[in-house]
Amino acid sequence: MNRRILTLMVALVPILVFGVLLAVVTVPFVSLGPGPTFDTLGEVDGKQVVDIEGTQTHPTTGHLNMTTVSQRDELSLGEALTLWLSGQEQLVPRDLIYPPGKSREEVDKANNADFKDSEDSAEYAALGYLKYAPAITIASVTDPGPSVGKLKVGDAIDAVNGTPVANVEQFTGLLKSTKPGQVVTIDYRRKNEPAGVTQITLGTNKDRDYGFLGVAVLDAPWAPFSVDFNLANVGGPSAGLMFSLAVVDKLTTGDLAGSTFIAGTGTISSDGKVGQIGGITHKMVAAHEAGATVFLVPAKNCYEAASDNPDGLRLIKVETLAQAVESLHAIQQGGQAPSC
């Protein structure tokens, strides 16, 4: 064989091996980057992202976009290098996203549960801001259980065996005086339906010696209409603030956004406190690329957000839902709002 050809073949071997490694070998990293944004005042797949039925709603304009972080797993070495070189993607150890001992399915299930919790908290925070009175609200119904077909998630409990109850403590106190097998009468209110009365035969539960009703309840602001959130394939709790703002905007006159493209992020508690989130800089990039000019930032994310802010994106610091509403009103009027 010609010496020159042999030399060329020997030189090509490591290149070919490296190419195979780039394509085949996976790395223990996950890529994080800007994800899609969704206008909470708009529609997705023909459905209102925030759908309110059973009461008057008001027209809205502008944008109140929630933001997300894209996530890519099972990266090849070549994909990881390409994403890293792009400058917009962040590579983090896979164990930070998928802790050892937990499968991807378990983590995704937990993220979906967090998202559902954020929807509930967003509704309660908005209704509380709008001064709807609290009620003993059913958060879940055990299935199978005594209350299946009798009570529903979202019902408000008003009385047990004719005795009015105003909070969870009173409700639980009455249940503790019952026995398994006893029939109790529950007065309840249901969204978009007349109030009702039902009789339920209490079951047993190994954790208690009194009657088991089979519902989880909490004290929360209650309204006679329904609020539904129609956004699938998004996990985590960080959409809470923007969901709450959309509910407030639809249930009040005037516009929170006006002609301004508002985006933002932040968890929200049932009492309206805005919490810290992850991936703030990726979400800001996504918002800026979508056309946002104002971005709502949880107060505890302000330092990180201000350190890497895209040009032309005004950062507004928020600690509560009420403060966020006040800031948006101020912006519409050309006034000042707390900034990062």
Q: Shape from CA axes?
A: globular
Order of helices and strands: HEEEEEHEHHEEEHEEEEEEHEEEHEHEH
Q: On the 0-100 scale, what is the average pLDDT?
A: 87
For this structure, what is the CATH class of the largest domain? Alpha Beta
Judged by helices, strands and strand pairing, the structural class is alpha+beta
What does this structure look like?
The relative contact order is 0.16. Strand 19, helix 8 and strand 20 form a beta-alpha-beta unit. The chain has two domains: 34-131 and 225-333, Ribosomal Protein S5, domain 2, CATH 3.30.230; 134-221, PDZ domain (Pdz3 Domain), CATH 2.30.42.10. It is 33% helix and 29% strand. It is globular. It has 340 residues and is an alpha+beta fold. It has nine helices and 20 strands. Helix 4 (104-129) runs parallel beside helix 6.
Q: Notable features of this structure?
A:
serine-type endopeptidase activity, alpha+beta, 2 domains, 9 helices, 340 residues, serine protease, Ribosomal Protein S5, domain 2, Pdz3 Domain, six-stranded mixed sheet, ATP binding
Could you give the topology of this structure?
Layout: H1 3-24, E1 29-39, E2 43-44, E3 47-48, E4 50-53, E5 63-72, H2 77-86, E6 90-93, H3 94-97, H4 104-129, E7 134-141, E8 156-160, E9 163-164, H5 168-175, E10 183-189, E11 196-201, E12 203-205, E13 208-212, E14 215-221, E15 226-229, H6 240-251, E16 261-264, E17 267-268, E18 274-275, H7 280-290, E19 294-298, H8 302-307, E20 314-318, H9 321-332
Parallel strand pairs: 5-16, 16-19, 19-20
Antiparallel strand pairs: 1-5, 1-6, 2-3, 4-15, 7-8, 7-14, 8-9, 8-10, 10-11, 12-13, 17-18
Helix pairs in contact: 4-6
